Automatic annotation (TrEMBL):
Highest taxon of source: Bacteria
SMART domains: Catalase (SM01060)
Keyword terms: Heme, Hydrogen peroxide, Iron, Metal-binding, Oxidoreductase, Peroxidase
SUPFAM superfamilies: Class I glutamine amidotransferase-like, Heme-dependent catalase-like
A Pfam family assignment: Catalase-rel
Family membership noted in the UniProt record: Belongs to the catalase family. HPII subfamily.
Species the sequence originates in: Virgibacillus xinjiangensis
Name of the protein: Catalase
Renumbered residue ranges of the record's region Disordered: 1-33, 511-535
InterPro entries: Catalase, Catalase_AS, Catalase_clade2, Catalase_clade2_helical, Catalase_core, Catalase_haem_BS, Catalase_immune_responsive, Catalase_large_C
Length: 682
């Protein structure tokens, strides 16, 4: 296989092309290339006799099938990925020597895998959970993996606690319940007894844990990394992905229903968006702190349970990532991709964040068991697009045929090649940080404030976001059987906000804490989703159309919605053509029962002159659900009557209007507003 030096946005695709195969219209053969004449019946001694050992075709087919599964990831098992490219806007030359961050306009191929953390490979995607956001940059200097999450902090400060955290959140070992959920005793017992989790729990209880779409999540490198420039000078850096569509979520009741109606909701959304050419985009941002300013903050900048508030350390936008191609084969690409925070390029280095340090060990180790040996870098999706040569040899499934006599260093036969490369010529050199200290198993005092930023987060939330946090906490703790755990947790969160803890305590039947509260009064507006980009682009609307609808006007509305980037899906009592009185027809892509209101962002009720009672009941169910979930509702023609019957006329975010053009304008604005939190739905 030829590797290339000049990397552009297509380099990875071209490399993968060598491994793709088309089976369509081909002869059926065994894996040895032998043409097969019969694939329905095994070889038997007589038509009703036993199967014979010599049936090599049967044995090969069955054995391969028997070995088809590999272990799922111990965390982040449920994931979905896509290809794309990263384009640099702003040179980072002053801060880093990384080649892909030098020249504005440079394009680097990327592969991104999103995931939930706790659930198994087949679990529902709308679990209340952190989302993985892992990006592999295939640069000309080797792969750089930014293995991040959609939340900027983490539950623990030291990697040695990771197995404990994951054991606590995974289904409980004695009964393997519950799947893909943190709402159970062991998780909350862990929280109460590991109070460094406080800040992350606030994020976990917030709307961030139930994203509307992978396309509408932020991504964070979480740890403090280090940029190192050509001169060897270092800067602390944090990485951010900011979605062009803004950061959006669903509400908890919806999330639970979506898990039943469409457990593939997030992957389906990403796949369809890419197939339709609505390529998701994120801007890439960096926060940079000078080494001299390391101690200038009221938190330790190496503590992974802390953010650097954007108002104190601005996020500089330096590039854009676009996902523009779905995978050809989920197992080959999405399942076999192996990320590792230790995959870095010259100019990017680590810091002493103890969580990051531990991750550097774990990721290779886990691939060895998951992918079955040390050659996982040869799997097509994992190969760098630049050449790689060393003296590592053999192992299970080795594919490279290394020619020649030498596989050691130093050697005279090959004049010491493959030879190390000087840092001036692109050889990786670890940052020469001066380190002194005793060997201790201890936590730094500067890592001991667990509540200030948890309070900062809560202070930064809008009123509805605060409500959601209290509801989420009440739900999760309400699912804990142990009253003692419930009590410990509310007592702990009294340190974040006393009112919040008291309200939750009232809900879950434990004693409201009497003292507590935080002295932190400041807020970081950047943390609230109320302040994010809002747009109607790519939002979906369920359009309920019945027999005898007003053909020409409704067609005009549907066209108007599409022109404004809204994606209408026509739903009726039956799939197929629905007839208007003027002879116009629209096609219902879904029936009431194959779709569901929780699967759409908004509702447009048309109804029709000849709809039956059942249609009206279904439409009322859609109206009620949409209303309860604060979503935009529009109605024209007979639909207006249904809105009246459901007592929703003139309510917030409910648009009734006959004139098609002005209906489109008003409805699109409502769709762009996303949710109407002012509705009284309790
Ligand atoms: Fe991971 N994590 N992690 N993690 N992580 C894995 O590696 C681990 C942490 C993250 O789509 C595993 O290949 C330790 C933080 C993502 O393939 C494993 C610690 C962050 C993915 C592992 C952490 C992450 C993983 C399991 C504590 C955000 C999925 C399968 C120090 C910055 C990548 C695998 C994909 C996966 C270990 C904490 C992100 C076991 C020990 C913090 C996005 O190696």
């Amino acid at each position: 296989m030829k590797n290339r030096r000049n990397v552009d946005g297509n380099s990875k695709d071209e490399q993968l092309e060598q491994f793709r195969t088309e089976d369509k219209d081909k002869d059926l053969t065994t894996n040895q290339g032998l043409k097969v004449s019969e694939d329905e019946f095994s070889l038997k001694a007589g038509e009703r006799g036993p199967t014979l050992m010599e049936d090599f075709h049967f044995r090969e087919k069955m054995t391969h099938f028997d070995h088809e599964r590999i272990p799922e990831r111990v965390v982040h098992a449920r994931g979905y990925a896509a290809h794309g490219e990263f384009e640099l806007y702003e040179s980072m030359k002053d801060y880093t020597a990384a080649k892909f961050l030098q020249e504005p306009g440079t394009k680097t191929p990327v592969f991104v895998r999103f995931s939930t953390v706790a659930g198994s490979k087949g679990s529902g995607e709308l679990a209340r959970d952190v989302r993985g956001f892992a990006t592999k940059f295939y640069t000309e200097e080797g792969n750089f993996d930014l293995v991040g999450n959609n939340m900027p902090v983490f539950f623990i400060q030291d990697a040695i606690k990771f197995p404990d955290l994951i054991h606590a959140v995974k289904p409980e070992p004695h009964n393997e319940i519950p799947q893909a959920a943190s709402a159970h005793d062991t998780f909350w017992d862990f929280v109460a007894n590991n109070q460094e989790s406080a800040h992350m729990i606030m994020w976990h209880m917030s709307d961030r844990a139930i994203p509307r779409s992978f396309r509408m999540m932020e991504g964070f490198g979480v740890h403090t990394f280090r940029f190192v420039n050509e001169q060897g000078k270092g800067h602390f850096v944090k990485f951010h992905w900011k979605p062009k569509l803004g950061v959006h979520s669903v509400v908890w009741d919806e999330a639970q229903k979506i898990n039943g109606k469409d457990p593939d909701f997030h992957r389906g959304d990403l796949y369809e968006a890419i197939e339709k050419g609505n390529y998701p985009e994120w801007e890439f941002g960096v926060q940079i702190i000078d080494e001299a300013d390391e101690d200038q903050f009221d938190f330790d900048i190496l503590d992974p349970t802390k953010i650097w508030p954007e108002e104190e350390v601005p996020v500089q936008i330096i590039g854009k990532m676009t996902l523009n191609r779905n995978v050809d084969n989920v197992f080959a690409e999405t399942e076999q991709v192996a990320f590792h925070p230790g995959h870095v390029v010259p100019g990017i280095d680590f810091t002493n964040d103890p969580l990051l340090q531990g991750r550097l060990f774990s990721y290779t180790d886990t691939q060895l068991i998951r992918l079955g040996g040390p050659n996982f870098h040869e799997i097509p999706i994992n190969r760098p697009v630049c050449p790689f040569h060393n003296n590592q040899r053999d192992g299970y499934m080795r594919q490279t045929i290394n020619k020649g006599q030498v596989s050691y260093h130093n050697n005279s036969f090959w004049k010491n090649t493959p030879s190390p490369v000087s840092p001036q010529n692109g050889g990786y050199q670890h940052y020469q940080e001066k380190v002194e200290g005793r060997k201790v198993k201890a936590r730094s005092d500067s890592f001991k404030d667990h509540f200030s930023q948890a309070a900062l987060f809560y202070n930064s939330m809008s009123a509805p976001e605060k409500e959601h946090i209290k509801e989420a906490m009440s739900f999760e703790l309400g699912k804990c059987k142990s009253k003692d755990v419930r009590q410990q947790v509310v007592d702990m969160f009294a340190n974040v906000n006393l009112d919040m803890a008291q309200e939750v305590a009232e809900n879950i039947g434990v004693k409201p804490p009497e003292t507590g509260g935080s002295e932190v009064a400041k807020a970081s507006p950047a943390l609230s989703q109320e302040n994010t980009t809002k747009t109607a682009e790519t939002r979906t609307t369920a359009v309920l159309v019945g027999e005898g609808f007003n053909g020409s006007e409704v067609k005009k509305v549907l066209q108007g919605l599409e022109e404004n980037g809204v994606d209408p899906v026509v739903i009726s009592s039956r799939q197929g053509m629905v007839k208007a009185d003027d002879g116009t027809e629209v096609e219902a892509a879904e029936r009431f029962d194959t779709a569901d209101p929780v699967l759409f962002d908004s509702l447009y009720v048309v109804s029709g002159a000849r709809v039956d009672k059942k249609f009206q009941q279904n439409a009322s169910y859609y109206l009620q659900e949409m209303y309860q979930h604060y979503k935009p509702i529009g109605a024209t023609h007979e639909g207006e009557q249904l809105v009246k019957e459901n007592e929703m006329e003139n309510q917030e975010g409910v648009i009734t209007e006959q004139e098609p053009d002005s209906f489109v304008t008003r409805f699109v604005d409502a769709v762009a507003a996303h949710r109407y939190w002012g509705r009284d739905v309790d």
